[in-house]
TrEMBL record:
Pfam families: AAA, AAA_lid_BCS1, BCS1_N. It comes from Penicillium subrubescens. This is Mitochondrial chaperone BCS1-B. Gene3D superfamilies: P-loop containing nucleotide triphosphate hydrolases. It catalyses: ATP + H2O = ADP + phosphate + H(+). InterPro entries: AAA+_ATPase, AAA_lid_BCS1, ATPase_AAA_core, ATPase_AAA_CS, BCS1_N, Mitochondrial_chaperone_BCS1, P-loop_NTPase. Keywords: ATP-binding, Hydrolase, Membrane, Mitochondrion, Mitochondrion inner membrane, Nucleotide-binding, Transmembrane, Transmembrane helix. Transmembrane segments: none annotated. Residues 15-172 form the BCS1 N-terminal domain. Its main location: mitochondrion. The keyword Transmembrane helix applies. It is found in: Mitochondrion inner membrane.
Amino acid sequence: RRQVLLRPTIEEDKVDCLRWCIAFPYARLSTSTVHIQSSNEMHDMLTSWISSRGLESTARSFLAKVDTAPGATMNDTDKKLLKLLPHQGSFYFWYKGQLLFYEARQEDYRYFDQEKITLTSLGRSSYILKDFLQECRSEYLNKIRDKITIFGHRGVQWKRDRVKEARPLSTVILRESEKAPLVADMKDFLNARTRRWYAQRSIPYRRGYLLHGPPGTGKSSFSLSVAGELGLDIYTVSIPAVDDQSLKSLFQELPANCVVLLEDIDAVDSAHSRDSMAATPASGQELSTVTKGVSLSGLLNVLDGVASQEDRILIMTTNHVNALDAALIRPGRVDRTVRFQLVDQDVAMQIFHYMFAQQGDASNQDPHSQPRLGVESQAREFARKIPEGRYSPAQVMSYLLQHRNEPDVALSNLERWVESTNGPIAPVQRRSVSAP
């Protein structure tokens, strides 16, 4: 009975002691502290751990958001789950018998606000904080195993956009004669023996790929899929949305062993170099007012200048390969080039087979209907009827989705659809430049 009454007293004493240590600067010498910025993935790892244990309920200030439950369908009533995260406040919690103090504050950082979390423990040793953060990391990585993390950017900060199931490479429509060597080259580059080979010869350890072709041919889809195949996170940058300084800052913050996707590389201004940060935005001024785009020299310095990053795979995409400056795609900056083409007969067969292969057995057919061609025969007939070099894979898949449960109808209506589209792909308007 005494022990039951005594324990809360000891805990309260520890809380009072920690409060006193935090409140008085000199007393902070008796504590250990770690700081975590919201721009770092450790922030996601920590908040995930806190939420999974319901500790956010002890906070007094929250950030409310909705999130989709894993595996939820469009008809689920709870598909938008309410989540409350600690926000601009503080609370205490226990970890392995040690009292930890959590505090979150908003700070200005390079024209943008970001959250900084501070964790404090009693004692001058930081072992308990390291142990705690390691557990947060391990638990988070276990949750996203077999998934791909996609990072975008907000200004000069990387920000996790989403975590999604890795898309199998088999679902990316590309000639196997082009896909297989490309993936094999990437896997060989990541091999430990290859890394040692580069190091022994003092060659910068990086690899560059250029994917080009009309819109909708699968360049971005392949990039995301291959990142999942390689088990790497992917960091995406839309060239029209950044300038020289922000691109440099983003590359400096890249981790080792990742895929970097530079989209719309033809938006680089090769005419001249510009100092994109000549003007500093005043307080409250939008960053877009000083964004001037990426110059060719700025991009080249990021890719292979003195301070350029190594330990990464770079993928650049463009719809207009002829618009690229020769200096950008010379060997050493671009190691392999792959053209993503409009649909031909081989690709048309792949798409049709991919969309309807699971419906090809007799168990799914109406016994009173006329015998239906097998999916292989239907795929060949579909490929024979569709004009080559006119449609992108995305357009063909969009058509087939309209008849996703009726391959016979998709085949019989194909000629009517071809006539209605009346020719090749319409010209695509270039995207306007906008700040992230």
